[in-house]
Amino acid sequence: MRPPFSPANWHVATLSTGLVVAMIAPVAAQAPRERIRIDNGWRFQRGDPAGNSVDLRYDVRPAVERSADGKVADAEPEAAATVAADTARVLKPWILPTANAFIADPAKHHVRPAGDPGSDVAYVRTDYDDKEWTHVTLPHDWAIAGPFIKDGPYGGMGRLKSWGIGWYRRTLDIPAKDRGKSIFLDVDGAMSYATVWLNGKLIGGWPYGYNSWRLDLTPHVVPGGRNQLAIRLDNPGESARWYPGGGLYRDLWLTKTAPVHVGQWGSIVRTPAVSAQRAEVTLALTIDNDGSAPAQVEVASEVFALDAMGKRTGGVVARVAPLRQMVAAKGSARFDGSTMLTNPRLWGPPPTQSPNRYVALSTVRVNGRVVDRYETPFGVRDIRFAGAQGVLVNGQPVRLNGVNNHHDLGAIGAAFNVRAAERQLEILRDMGVNAIRMSHNPPAPELLELTDRMGFLVIDEVFDSWERKKTPLDFHLIFPDWHEADLRAMLRRDRNHPSIMLWSVGNEVGEQYTGEDGAKIARELVSIVRQEDTRPATSAMNYAKPDMPLPAEMDVININYQGSGIRTLPGQYPAFRAKFPDKVLFESESASALSSRGEYLFPVSGSLSGPVRPGSGGDPDTHQVSAYELHASDFGSSADREFAAMDQNPGVAGEFVWTGFDYLGEPTPYYTSRSSYSGIVDLAGFPKDRFWLYQSRWRPELKFAHILPHWSWPGREGQVTPVHVFSSADEAELFVNGVSQGRLKRAPYAYRFRWDFVTYQPGEVKVVTWKDGQPWATETVVTTGPATALKASVDRARIAGDGRDLAFVTVDVVDAEGRISPRAGNPVRFRVEGAGELVATDNGDPTDLTAFPSAVRNAFNGKALAIVRAAKAGPITLIAEADGLAPTRVVVTALR
Ligand code: GAL
């Protein structure tokens, strides 16, 4: 049996400018390991061919009797339905063996049955002519281009048709000189139920769409011949509570090695003892010998520092002495080494610490000949979970100012893109975020590279459901067969990332309700975490109470919404704190506050927090939610109410807000919309007012005062138009056209200044603030004139012309003074000249059903976004035009 492995070796790093660079190329020339990204040359088709003799399904799925559409997110999950249908002809028995490397007990390993199902299906055959299929480049999300579904059914998965069957075909380049090599297909993520054929033979697959997995192609490839890959995906409807996307939505790689090589995710770095003077570094490497003779193997490693961009810098800083051992034919062996770093540069979250990193470069020799080189980036840090003291990073308490994020990247969907993810993290960091929960599934591997590099603390989460179901066809269908493999796969892939502080084995699972039975499953999952890693395990609980069996199984207490109270349930922080004095406690989901950027609805609630109802926070006609930021999902709370609950419970380590960014699907409270309302930042990446509320708390040193709403209300003259201000100041005075509306002192447990009885008159609203008696910040908002022009700005003036890097262009509708026109909804036409192309447009409006690739996009409350890419070097000009407004253009240079 092959022992566990761990990550390394994808060598894409981004510069702070976001340019994607190859990290460490020269070693490839000296050693036979090659890692080739296979992103182009794919052909794609939806649906199965007609007339197959075999049932191509992974398994028979239960009939969906009742849709889960529009179900309240915290509804109790139900018992699984049983499938009575004949499952004899399905492909599951041929797929399950792919899990074997991740099943600890050899007695439970799956044996591939005889036969070669599907080999007669036209699409898998080498001679099938696929020239009518669509050309696609990976990462590819087959649903994101739309169109949006105008009538039902649509529910949590949203209005883009991500469900259904899709096929991908591509030939693989395996030259004759590769004879004798080990050859693997590495899939970073395929949504979902992947089945893979090579040259007409079924090789294996992996159902769960969020994990990374490998197939050994060695016995099946024909070096020097034509090698035809065919991948079938079968993404079930009713399988998620959010938009999953569909397709080969992350990278695929062809990995070629010598028969003796570092295995899949085959290194484990740990730093068990860390001080400012010294750090002990242990490095375990698992070497596979795919050859037919035993090999005398030597492994030696050198450690280098990495710079901020992830490039090696300087000479060797430590060495792991050579280790020697025989590795049996078709066997594996683990080489355990260690070394000492003096004056280590520690990894820790900014702004108080720096995310310094190192890389271990391991060289594998057989009879003195180099057969493999393998890199393991890592960080030296000590993270302690210290009960009521919270989380200590390198001895320093770090309050968790976190957010949850789903995996989609707005207008480009689930197709992973490093720059789009980096941009999200930059916006969040600017707000003061220092921690991210990967809700509710393992992310793209590059996202963890980004969190390592930028210094975010991460909760890596594997499942949204266990045996009980939230939607009729979710993960519960395969939990019995796959939970061990899926959990171990996440742990082994991700465990060298310094940013990961905590593993989450579940989110709001139905097993919270099943007492000891649920706790038993939790025990099994937590014990798997302990076998693979030293970091603690948790599971997010929105229902389980301190005296129930489930919380006791967790190393860290993660509660969703309960901390500050759910509906009529009083806040649970004190009860959890008292019951688990030695465990760290925090809200893994907080707030679930809802709003639409720039939509201010009247009357404004006088209370601090409440559910969205018609006329109270919500407009049932426009399906917009008020940006006064006082409303939440039925079980949630405003940001302010969460702050107050935490400040009254100092033993709470922090929060992870639901959510940092709006996401596709789950559009509570208006299920006809395309995307959520819960983001602090909208789907296009434009901050809502809440951004400044969090920033005032998380970056209290920043001198600003943010006023809401805008002050351009023709027709509201003389009507009550409350003015609220977000600032870390402790005193503030508001003036409307020079007339004071009163000077306010910040009250205990209040996080905004509010003047709720201001009457609107055009002109100027000004706030003057003080902190500790000293002037702090002043802000003015004025009534704008008619819109006259468009104004463009771009996030970066230079991008890589590599077909992947992106420029994000913001277009504002402005008046003659260049001030944003806060209600403008003009249709904006985008055009690209030169080296680039328009990828997608957006505006952050959850109700906008214009397909994302559209070159025409209505501004939403004065703003629109265009996403641009270049496949070659040269200048790119993005031109934006709208009837009756002066056009605008912005130039971006694509570099080679
Ligand atoms: C939670 C759930 C999240 C999301 C959120 C919506 O109950 O864990 O996945 O559904 O509610 O507010």
The span between the termini is 45 Å
* Sequence of strands across the biggest β-sheet: 23-24-25-26-27-28-29-35
Q: Which spans of ≥5 residues are poorly predicted at pLDDT below 50?
A: 1-30
Computed structural class: mainly beta
Give the helix level as a range of percent. 10-25%
Mean pLDDT level: 94
Number of strands: 51
Bound small molecules, which ones? beta-D-galactopyranose
Biggest sheet: strands, sense, closure? Answer: 8 strands, parallel, barrel
Tertiary shape: globular
> Beta-sheet strand percentage?
35-45%
Radius of gyration: 28 Å
Number of helices: 10
Overview of this structure, please?
This protein has 896 residues and is mainly beta. The chain contains ten helices and 51 strands. The protein has an eight-stranded parallel barrel, surrounded by five helices. Strand 25 (457-461), helix 5 (479-494) and strand 26 (500-507) form a beta-alpha-beta unit. Helix 3 (418-431) runs parallel beside helix 4 and helix 5 runs parallel beside helix 6. The longest helix has 18 residues, at 515-532. The chain is globular, with a radius of gyration of 28 Å. The chain starts with 11 loop residues before the first strand and ends with a strand. 54% of the residues are buried. Mean pLDDT is 94; it is low at 1-30. Bound molecules: beta-D-galactopyranose. Beta-D-galactopyranose binds next to loops. Beta-D-galactopyranose (GAL) binds at residues 73-74, 241, 439-440, 507-508, 542, 560, 589, 592, 633, 658, 666, 668, 678.
